[in-house]
């Protein structure tokens, strides 16, 4: 930005600092900040490197239901109950935007300056005077505070209260200046509050001026600042968005760098299909433009036919550098039968990955071997090595203080997941499992594995749809050899989500979202307090003082080396506690698309659906 503007805004911040008592804590304001070091892009950059700045705008992008949702019953994505309409995030923005080709940096979007205090106990944002909501009203600091306070209230999804627990308050300093104060010196907090979704104070206001309670807002049209508006919808079936002709970022005299090459379609239409087979056939019939495929067999055998042969339809596996994280069968340790780690380890020994990969997945997958798979944060990243001195510095005091919560195995080489590759075998693994179960008090008698009370060992596996039925059938046959009965329950997404929110299951398939720079989201995923709150990501129910302590070390890491040591220590504790039966991963995104679709080179870190939405375009667009 021009030097005069920066000088005026910095002086303004300094004046505000004196008024509110910040004094010498003020640091230099900038458009971009990084958690560690400096951001990749300097102030005034033209656009992100991974976009096409000359991408044509226009046309309609038609997409199927993302994920497993087959319907929706609300527009509000920030509450616990119900299923949100796909694409609703197109209507909301945040103070800053992340970059997909670096780790943990943000750049001003609604805000044009970001100012971190020298003691890192607060961050101040100056909101662009041009920023407006979809109803034409300006985005003000009071709206930012309202958004934060609402998400931290009991009316929003509980995950926000857990994730932002270290943020003390949002303070309005002037109409367009807002400050967030932090309870702890957590280097991730400025990034987190910068990407907080912002919505208008008027969202949910009735004609008579009274407000609908936030948790009751359902189909009331969101008032956000994003580039799209809802054009039409059929409840639970489809929803169409159109570009807001008055979108504030399109009205600027100079293109906004974090929006150049983004959102190139005039309309976005989602069609929701009843199941995966119907969706694939609809794609082949030309009903939508692109489809991300997660099933190896369908990718190998389903995406074939004359339209693929003649080039009308294309398919490609796009490389990504995302950390694969953890995907697997998660065990709910709130259930008495699953509280013994020896039982959980035994259940993992019954999964024959090599057979599944060969017979079902066409050898397309590698095995998950960490909670941070495919990342340098994994304790297995450079092989099954013993903890480093930096890791031991964290683990030894915790072992002394909480010996029952730190498995002895964490001090040895990181174990590989069970394998049936020669010289191993399924028979050998099941024998080890039977031994573990016996020591945990489970004996085979009267045709079933039973505890001391004579109760049979039964597991209810809850899934949202039939995606894993072939895998579960094979797994169930192996469990039968141990005397364990696997009951498979499938349901639609809404009922499945309700059971997850209430932790009404024994086991389920889970995928912990990828992150190149994990931090406060781990409290919601593995923290003790989250285990007690309905709807958290801690579906496992982990309540471990050791896990809590290591998450705290991760969130207060001052550099990448400290982060790596803390993540690897946490990885060792989680892995050797056998909370999840690890599954598999593929370092590509499988995407099929119509021949008219065009795309830039993908960034380093991205998810396929948002990338298509944000950065693709159509050749025919004008």
TrEMBL record:
SUPFAM superfamilies named in the record: Periplasmic binding protein-like II
Coiled-coil stretches noted in the UniProt entry, renumbered to this chain: none
Domain called Solute-binding protein family: residue spans: 106-530
Keyword Plastid: no
Signal sequence bounds: 1-29
Entry keyword set: Signal
Gene3D superfamilies documented for this protein: Dipeptide-binding Protein, Domain 3, Periplasmic binding protein-like II
GO cellular component: ATP-binding cassette (ABC) transporter complex; outer membrane-bounded periplasmic space
Protein's GO biological process: microcin transport; peptide transport
GO molecular function (one): peptide transmembrane transporter activity
Keyword Signal belongs to the record: yes
Protein name: Peptide ABC transporter substrate-binding protein
